[in-house]
Amino acid sequence: MTTLVIGARGNVGRAVVEQLLALSEDVRASVRRIRGNEFPAQVEVVRADLSEPDSLSAALRGVQRVFLYAPEPNQVAGVIRVLEKADPERVVQLSSGSVLLESAAGNSIAEEHRAVEDAFAAASLPWAPIRPLVLATNDLHWDTRHPIRLVRPQARTAPIHEHDIAAVAVTALTTTKATDGILTGNELLSQEERVAIIADVLGRPLQVEELTEGDARKAFQHSSQIEAILDFLRTAADGGSPATGVVEEVLGRKPLSYRQWVEDHRNDFA
Ligand SMILES: NC(=O)c1ccc[n+]([C@@H]2O[C@H](COP(=O)([O-])OP(=O)(O)OC[C@H]3O[C@@H](n4cnc5c(N)ncnc54)[C@H](OP(=O)(O)O)[C@@H]3O)[C@@H](O)[C@H]2O)c1
């Protein structure tokens, strides 16, 4: 049985490939642009773009299971059409826990993921969404060479390691277990506490500079997601961002800790 991992170069996609290989599953990896030798030799690498249904159709030939990222809302209908034609046994789609979080209703990130989910739910596909709430990899955007600029440094969330998201996705691909709750890490940590853990693991002091929402709007005016992110931070500062037990229910073990995640990414921080 072959699994196509669409977005196999992404943080989560790459971990899905690794974990399927560890189970001796056949894996086809798709990327938008093929580079040389970035996957183990037993992985078949193909080119596919969610915005180009023909490329997707070719990548799906002979495949029984599919992992994919959320397509852009304007790509969803085309992606679903091609998937329905390919008729796989399982489609696992990376979505967002914000879809299930009442306080996120109306937030543009949550609503985009909801629109994609609604389209998949209405299709004739054996579909399972995977819903992480806050990815630990967001923190790789922090430039540790300078004071780290944070809106609401005390805002607490429970970021999840990409390996745990992938482990839940692989469970959804290879079993019939329910995997659709909000996925989080095991501990609520403020942004400041996370900076302190990074400093401890890197072995050098790090500074934090607090930004107002107005500062952030100016600094990130190019980002279409800034209002949604400010919204999430406001909720988190008010204690509205949960740590759930879903990863443990699905995997039968505690989620990996934030410290573990930092140790795994020690060399990725600027
Ligand atoms: N940030 C959060 O806290 C958060 C919370 C909940 C959910 N999420 C979800 O998690 C995702 C990020 O996961 P990640 O860290 O693993 O992302 P990532 O490392 O940035 O990887 C994204 C992958 O998506 C692929 N991709 C993008 N557009 C594509 C297209 N048109 N066709 C085919 N592949 C395409 C990219 O492929 P190439 O490498 O080939 O370009 C890349 O491999 C977000 O997009 C969001 O949906 C994020």
What does this structure look like?
The chain has 270 residues and is α/β, with parallel strands linked by helices. The protein has one domain: NAD(P)-binding Rossmann-like Domain (Rossmann fold, 3-Layer(aba) Sandwich). It is built from ten helices and eleven strands. The chain has helices at 11-22, 53-60, 76-86, 108-122, 162-174, 191-202, 213-219, 226-237, 246-251, 258-264; strands spanning 2-6, 26-31, 44-47, 65-69, 90-94, 127-132, 148-151, 156-157, 182-183, 189-190, 208-211. The strands form three sheets. The chain has a seven-stranded parallel beta sheet with strand order 3-2-1-4-5-6-9, with helices on both faces. α2 (53-60) runs parallel beside α3. It is globular. The protein starts with a strand and ends in a 6-residue tail after the last helix. 39% of the residues are buried. The mean pLDDT is 97. The site of NADP nicotinamide-adenine-dinucleotide phosphate has 21 residues, from α1.
